[in-house]
Amino acid sequence: MEPIILNKPAPSWMRDAFRGVGTGGMLRLADQLIMLKIDDFTPADLKGLRGKVQVRVYRGRTVLLIHLLQSNFAFELWWSPVIGRLNGEPPLEADWEHHPVVNIVAMDKKLKVRNLRSATLSPEVAVAISRAMSELLATPCTDRDVQLEIQALIALHQGRFPDGMFHAACNLGD
Known about the structure:
There is one protein chain. The protein is of the alpha+beta class. It has one domain. The protein contains five helices and eight strands. The chain has helices at residues 12-18, 43-50, 81-86, 123-137, 143-157, and strands at 25-28, 33-37, 54-59, 64-70, 73-79, 101-107, 113-120, 168-171. The strands form two sheets. A four-stranded mixed beta sheet has the order 1-2-6-7, sandwiched between helices. The chain has a four-stranded antiparallel beta sheet with strand order 5-4-3-8. A hairpin with a 2-residue loop joins strand 4 (64-70) and strand 5. The longest helix is centred in the last third of the chain and has 15 residues, at 123-137. The chain is globular, with a radius of gyration of 15 Å.
């Protein structure tokens, strides 16, 4: 596997994952990896990614939302069993439920690596993610079910998800 090097183009497998998709973030939790693409990457974004970042977890009927919240940005990272099956992503291992380390790779519009951060998640957040993924993988759903749920959640909350919606939350490094 190609290495991830700061201020260099992201590895080809990472760049390929973002080609042809409009998303700004992707999860590969079995690999303990969160990938972010920030089109207009600024020094403020870099400072924010190095500072306090809250991780919030919501489990819906067909989707898992991992919401990264910082003072000047928010990332909604959606995961569903449909995506998991397409990517061949296995359920998370039981030992992931303690204090897992996640690696966050932030890239600019040209998919050059601008920030690397490794941090732990709280046991509560790790358990919420692990259980949600396992339960959702056992839940039958279609692409359409996932699309409808995401659209409904975004419309209901108009892109500003309230604290009370989330099942678990922590700051990176907690």
